[in-house]
Amino acid sequence: MTRKTLSLIACMIISAVSADRIHAKEDPINPDGTYLYAERDTCDLYLDVYNPAKGSQTSINGKKKPTIVFMFGGGFIQGARDDESYNDWFKMLTQNGYRVVSIDYRLGLKGSNKVGIAQVNVLDKAIHMAVEDLFSATNFMIDNAESLGIDPTNIVISGSSAGAISVMQAEYEVCNRTSWASVLPSDFNYAGVMSFSGAILSRKGKVKYAEEPCATLMLHGTADALVPYKQIAFFNLGFFGGGKLVERFQKFDYNYNMYHFTDYGHEIASSMETTLDLQLKFLENNVMQGEKRVIEAWLSDPDVYKGFGPQSRKELYYSASLSRQSSTSFLTCAL
């Protein structure tokens, strides 16, 4: 695969998650603090902390609301923790009494000129670089919990597209106590996961959790041509999207909410603002109250497009159409 082809795929993903977004014409939200959490050979990694808005309700029935850690999208090629397209969602969360932490992570596919079946290790490395950075950020929050106002036992990780892949993969590594997760405290787990069009990479066939995963919210378009809704498998190697992962959650009676957006594509990766009510119910019930409130729903909701302008909507349809016609997507190219 040529650099030109990879760039086209990257542009498709980026346009699907960030191009020409309409932002609410309100005062911008600024972080209450920015911290260096890791120094890598190639870059320094920072995280932004947005504290709950003054006067907001930070607990329910005596239970403190969790800290929401966010990983941006961009195909492991592009993106930023402080991209303004996320500002409105951050503001919504803080106004509802949640602390938000948006983190940098290394873009493992940036500059790659070839990703094909013989180069699956490139994608695997990119995903695990992001997971490694998330774990470093987690340790930073644990070590500085008091000064940051964070309860280490009450952290929910969330992500969009590539970020959603990263948080789903991270919880998978934690539950299987892999070498990647060994950098965390031995008894650590997150309080919850929120995945907007995510997937898990497995080299061992079906995804299996040695320990029960934390409460998990998954939202995925059934027609997603960029991050697979179901699966892409090649012998024991495969990507398993929300539509396939939920089968495991059903079988083993895990604590989850799964929203299948019928005939929607990768735009669900950027539906954080328009699906806020689903997130708040999940956070309040499944995470804070510890209820096993299992939901599986198929939705066709035109309101999911409210966060997109006409040009962005046109690009979303174009990118999905192009992917279907060419049988090419970011993840299929990697497999």
Tell me what you see in this structure:
The protein has helices at 3-18, 87-95, 120-143, 145-148, 162-175, 242-251, 276-288, 310-326, 330-334, and strands spanning 33-39, 44-50, 59-60, 63-64, 67-71, 99-103, 155-160, 192-196, 199-202, 215-221, 231-234, 237-241, 256-261, 295-299. It is α/β, with parallel strands linked by helices and 335 residues long. It has a nine-stranded mixed sheet with strand order 1-2-6-5-7-8-10-13-14, with helices on both faces. A three-stranded antiparallel sheet has the order 9-12-11. Helix 1 packs across helix 8 and helix 3 crosses helix 5 (162-175).
Quickly describe the structure:
Helix content is 33%, strand content 21%. With 335 residues, it is of the alpha/beta class.
Which blocks of ≥5 consecutive residues have pLDDT under 50?
1-25, 308-335
Q: In percent, how much strand structure appears in the residues?
A: 15-25%
Number of helices: 9
- The total of beta strands comes to 14
Over the alpha carbons, how many angstroms does the gyration radius reach?
18 Å
- For the record, give the distance between the C-alpha atoms at the N and C termini, rounded to a whole number: 12 Å
